[in-house]
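Hi there, hope your week has been kind to you so far. Thanks so much in advance, here it is.
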Amino acid sequence: MFPHKIINAGPDNNKRILSYFRGEGEGFVQVGDQEWIIPAEYERSAADIYQFSPRPDDVWIMTFPRSGTTLCQELIWLLKNNLDTKKSAEIDIHAKAPFLEFSILRGPRLIQETMKLNADNSAAIDLLKKIFRPEFETAAELANPRIIKTHLPFCLLSPTLLPTSKVIYIARNPKDVIISCYHHNKLFKLNHHEYCGDLKTYWQFFKDNLVCYSPYWEHLKQAWTHRYHPNMLFLFYENLSKDRFSEIKKIAKFLDVNYSDDQLQQLVDFMEINNFRQRVRIKSDSVEIKGIIADHTEEFIRNGKVNGGDPELTPELSKEIDEWTAAHLQNTDLRFPE
């Protein structure tokens, strides 16, 4: 049984979103009292995702999108697998840590069109069948120990998650999240992707809680309330960027794995952004799939900088985001590292 109400986001919201986010097009729903904005495809699998059973030796990576998720997937996999970078290079990132609710980002139209585009490539069709299978089904069949990625907030996941499994939550400064989400949403032809506007307009969607997985602040605050739970590790992306050695040591302790300082320093060097971008497999090297990635030069792994800025980020827009951030932090002790 799924305990939250799911309602249509409404004609005005759907019209506004779909006029800029051209990927798929089934519309959006609002979920629960917080009115989480999620593609309509979610309604078909909400109960399955909510009832997905955590295991005691699971590690869950939970983030609002573009908050260091991929970095932590690779980092945690290596810590759990003897720092075996050679083996890591042979496995794509999605196989290391299934994206629990990925099926909500691809509706029937995308599946049909992509299968049709690749009909003459049997290897691509075989891979697409695996890709289009709901990840919660795939993850349920994995042997222990599992690493699982999700962008969903705590309230939309099993209430047994935190009492059962280890959860690592990564938070990132909203200005960097907005910029990274903006570029990421232009990259894929998925639900709530293939964005065709500018950064200023994207910011309006973000501020109005009309980007996927919004509201951003409620997402963070739910995790923040659990930060002292023994199965919870709350991290800031900014600390992971500025003092990676100390943060990796903290993660290793949380995961109950032991490595020497020299070994951890080698891991820090491996996770340097340019090396990371070149060596971590995001997709199959041998099978080309048409129809999922949009036709431009955006990259899945960007520069990973803190306060990285953007050519479209004007001083006025930057100030507006700063004021919005300060207003939301007023009644909480949550603070982002400088």
